[in-house]
Structure formats: C-alpha cells, structure tokens
Task: structure prediction
Amino acid sequence: MNAHDYAKQVLAGGDVSQVYWVACGGSVIDLYPANCLINANSKSMTSAIHTAAEFNTFPPAQLGPSSLVVTCSHSGGTAETIEATSLAKDRGARVVTMTNRAGSKIDNGEWPCWVYEWEDDTPQSARPAGFSLTLAADLMAAQDGYADTDALARGIDQLDGINAAAKPRVESELGPLFADLCKKHDFLYVLGSGPDFCQTYGFAICSLMEMQWQNCSYINSAEYFHGPFECTEDGVFYFLQKGSGANRPIDERAERFLKTHTDTLMVLDSAEYGMANVDASVRTYLDPIFFYEMNVSLRGVRGKAFGHDPDVRRYMGIVEY
Result:
C-alpha cells in the first residue's frame, strides 16, 4: 500500500474533520509540513501537530470518530507514540501509523501501519515526509477539491534530483566553514520560519544537540524581532535556513538585520541549490525535506572535523530515562 491507498481507506469511514500528527523527535519533524499544508489549504479540516507525550497528557477534546491520527515511530518502539496510537483508537479515531521496523511493537496488527525503507537511495515519496504530504493532499483533494496534488507529486519527485545535486555542493561550499565556526563558537543560533521551522528545530535538537553534542538554540525568524534580536552582536554565530517559498520574505528580513549586526552569519539558501525550480504552489511545503538532507550533510562534515560520529550517544538508549 502507498499513501493513496491509505487515504482511500481513511475516507471510507466518511469525511475527516480533524487531523492530528503525533510523534517524537525526528519523527514529529517529518510530519510538520503536512500539518502546514492542511492548515493553509483546507476549509473542511483542521490540523494540529503534537509531541506524543503531550498528546497523551492533553488529548484534544475533539478527538473522536471524525478525527484522523497519524503517528510515526522510526524505531517502532517509542512508548509515547504507541500509547498515543492506542489512545486515538480507543477514542474511535481513524489511525494510520508508520515505522521503519516491520514486526516492531507499533507494527502489531492493531491498526494500519505503513513500513517504510530508510536507505540512502530511498526516494522522498517513500519516506515519512513525502508520504504524509501525499496523504494530506489526497484528503484535501477529496474534501476540498485541492488542485495542486499533481504539482505536489512532481515536486516530491524533483527533490531526489535536487538533493543529490545539492548535497556535494553544500558539503564543499558550506561544510568546512560550518565546522570551523563550530570550533570557534561553543554556541550558535539556528533560524528559520514557516514549514521550514521544523528543520530549524530539527537541526538544533537532533543533528547538533543529539548527534554532535553542540550547544545551540533555535529561533523562528518571524519571532526573532520580538525579543531574541537583542542578543545579536559581533562574535555570536547565527545560521539561517533561508526558504524559497512563501516564508522567504520573513527570512530575508532577519537576514538583512543579521548582516549589519553580527560578523558571524552563515546562510543556507534553498533557492540557490535548486528549490527555485519547484512549482511555487507547493515549494513552501517541500523546502523542509531539502533542509533535512542538507542538515545531514553539515552534521556529517562537522562530525568528521571533530572526530565525533553522528551515531555516538552517551545517554539515548544507554541509560535509564
């Protein structure tokens, strides 16, 4: 089964009024663009994204038979996500979950579960972000007459080529500078906005804090001017993920200020690395997939420069927590 099949299965139960995307860490990040897509385009559905522990603690009052809950556990054993899936089923909601591990605790036969591959050559259409965007688009096509499903599918397919061409460029053009700046600065700020903010968050908490033990903080470019910009000065390292979609003016505003108020700014502009070639109607929601792949490249370059393999952990899966 693919995303189209799951959408048909969901809609067999009638129209959907609420969609809740629930996961933890990198998995919840993958679901964020689909949440943005629905909220910006659907009049028949509301959409919300939750980290699983909070979903379990504060389940939405509207959660019920008219709801779809999409969960993801890459490992297949994330306790909070399994609990959230069970909670949704118990409330009568329709459920779709996904995992990279066939036969894992979440792939238990109690609910529809899509098992995906996670190899270097796995196309974006067959990864959680692409799957969830396609699922969301199909729901909107059925309920709202959403007209950009074909453009979205083309854009997702384009990403494979765009990312393949961009990764070596980013590694060579930005990687060494990024690693050098990390050596010179114990701390950095990562900025981004719109749907891309999930990868601003993800780059900070997953690629840098988890995988590189690099102290950093994430800031929404739109919120930068509502407090955080007071910390801007020379010698403070800022890394800006500059989107190519509807949120680009937000990032450009932050960039203009940063260029004149700090001497340590790096900009990763998705438009310069191929995303400008994607249809403008869907580019905003596909930029995050581009940024994820580039984040992987940058953390890899940093890891080699520091002798720190991104797979090394000191707490996760090692100590009780």
